[in-house]
Amino acid sequence: MSEWLESAIARAQGINDWLAPKRAHALDLLANTKWPNRKTEAWRYTPLRPVERTAAKVMADKVNLSPVAIAELSAIELVFVNGQFDQTQLAQTLPEGLSIALGSDLGSAEQVDALNVFSTIKPERHIFGLVNDALAKDVVVVSVAQGVEIAEPIRISSLLSSGAESHTRVQVALAAGSKLTVIEDVQAQGDSFNTAFVEYNVAANARLEHYRFALQTGSNVAIGGSHFNLHDHAKMNSTIVGFGSEVVSFGYRHYPCWRVCRCQAQCYVFAGWKRVVRPSCDR
User: Fold this and answer.
1) Please, is 10 exposed, middle or buried when counting C-beta atoms within 10 Å of its C-beta (0-12, 13-18, 19+)?
2) DSSP 31
3) Is 87 helix (H, G, I), strand (E, B) or coil?
4) Cα–Cα distance between 65 and 19 in angstroms, integer?
5) Strand-pair partners of 240
6) Where are the domains positioned within the chain?
7) Is the Cβ–Cβ distance between 229 and 204 less than 8 Å?
8) Residue 243: its pLDDT value, please?
9) Interior angle at CA 139, CA 282 and CA 83, nearest 5
10) Residue 173 near residue 142 (C-beta atoms within 8 A)
């Protein structure tokens, strides 16, 4: 086990919140997980020395960062700054049928529902997925009601200042027949380290338009993923664009396509990435 992972486990052991059962499970698995090396098939082309030597730290002090504007885009902004959800950048009034809330602010019954879904869509034994399970604090839950079409896209932005460490998690649930567009956007400054995972549950006859942009400089380390559970006749179109980071590992998986569903995925990788994304579908 690496010193970095030992430190991450020690920090997670000091957190006690509504995610405690899931965190404890992740810590149990991490304690018995070997640090990947070149002989580990899933990581043989991804050098992890930048993770081992990173000096990035969790920053408790509030930093004012805003997402880079995208021309002609009007979006519902869901913003994390150095791993902390910035409630002030979320619209005060959301469209009818859409709810966005911190898991810690949910009622007890809603927290139980969120816990039941948490970490069930991404692969259970992804080592950095487990790190995210253990260290993510501000977990945001997004829900779209049955038959509701949200016209404005949601942009999930994870912003990191220089030297920051961040672990963000979002759960997105589309009820039957609903429609939603989501843009995931990581913008990181130098010498940062982040894990950013989003889990999508797309119910029957729902439609998801999905985009993920990883816009980072060469000294960043970024490991994360988007994972999808598509039900009967659900439809998804997904586009991923990334460049610039010294090490990027990005998992992308959707499962199971219960009987009939449609999924299209495009991935564009530019200079600087050390690992190519491999979309997969478990049926």
Assistant:
1) exposed
2) H
3) helix
4) 27
5) 212, 267
6) 3-57+74-281
7) no
8) 62
9) 110
10) yes
Whole-number pLDDT of residue 278:
46
Contact 206, 232 (CB under 8 A): no
- Reported in sequence order, the residue ranges of 203-273 that DSSP labels E, i.e. its strands, are 207-216, 221-230, 235-243, 247-254, 262-269
Q: What is the pLDDT, as a whole number, of residue 259?
A: 52
CA proximity to 242, closest of 252, 227, 229: 252
Q: Is the CB of residue 200 less than 8 Å from the CB of residue 172?
A: yes
Q: What sign does the CA torsion over 60, 65, 70, 74 have?
A: positive
Tokens 């009601």 belong to 145
pTM confidence score: 0.89
156-197 confidence digits (pLDDT tens): 999 999 999 999 999 999 999 999 999 999 888 888 999 999
> Tell me, what's the pLDDT at 230?
92
Q: Residue 67 in contact with residue 157, Cβ under 8 Å?
A: yes
Quick one: which of 220, 223, 225 has its CA closest to 197?
Answer: 225
**How many Å is the Cα radius of gyration of the chain?**
18
Q: Which amino acid does the sequence have at 214?
A: A
